[in-house]
Design goal:
The chain is an alpha/beta fold. Helices cover 39% and strands 21% of the residues.
Length: 199
């Protein structure tokens, strides 16, 4: 039984909304899929095309309602982008999803400004996190804020700082969901020389 669970395909849900940061979204989706993780990109506002922070349009795989109804994922991922992150914080549906994920002790990952949604929806307060530097003051009262690492992992939370750390962020997710060998293999294929095991 344990062996079957180990071999089961890992799943990830990446949430997108108008204003999401496209590099953080696309790099994460791409890296996870290279690692053989089944990624579903869902539009929070039940739209099939999202206009990101730099006006790049991304077509989603599924509507939020369809992607989350009677389904669960090994990890839920929130890309940053200031306006996208504000949308995550104001969405009761996103809040319920994150709280369900947290209650089940499943992974939640947020990058850039998106950790502010964790605070709003009362996820992991007191844990170590990081974010885009300008979000520090908003988060440091409720979390142990780390500002000298590209990725911070504490329990079921994975957080990161911004577009330039998206590769570190996504490779850390790969390592946690699979193993360091897979993450290293993906990093080598990308010619990404900065990969370091997160363990």
């Amino acid at each position: 039984m344990a062996e079957k669970e180990k071999d089961k395909e890992k799943t990830a849900l990446v949430l997108l909304v108008d204003g999401s940061e496209e590099m953080e979204a696309v790099i994460t989706v791409d890296v996870l899929r290279r690692a053989g993780i089944a990624v579903t990109v869902a539009g929070v506002w039940d739209v099939s095309c999202v206009k990101c922070s730099r006006n790049v349009k991304i077509c989603t795989d599924a509507m939020f309602t369809d992607a989350t109804q009677d389904k669960s994922y090994d990890i839920v991922i929130l890309p940053g982008g200031l306006n996208g992150s504000k949308a995550f914080t104001s969405s009761a549906e996103v809040g319920r999803l994150l709280q369900k994920q947290d209650k089940e002790n499943k992974l939640i990952a947020a990058i850039c400004a998106a950790p502010t949604a964790l605070k709003t929806h009362n996820i992991g307060k007191g844990k170590r996190i990081t974010s885009y530097p300008s979000m520090k003051n908003e988060l440091s009262d409720d979390y142990e804020y780390i500002d000298d690492k590209p990725v911070v992992i504490d329990g079921n939370l994975i957080t990161s700082r911004g577009p330039a750390t998206a590769f570190d962020f996504s490779l850390a997710i790969v390592e946690i969901l699979t193993n360091s060998k897979t993450a290293e293999h993906v990093a080598n294929g990308l010619l990404y020389e900065n990969y370091k095991s997160c363990k």
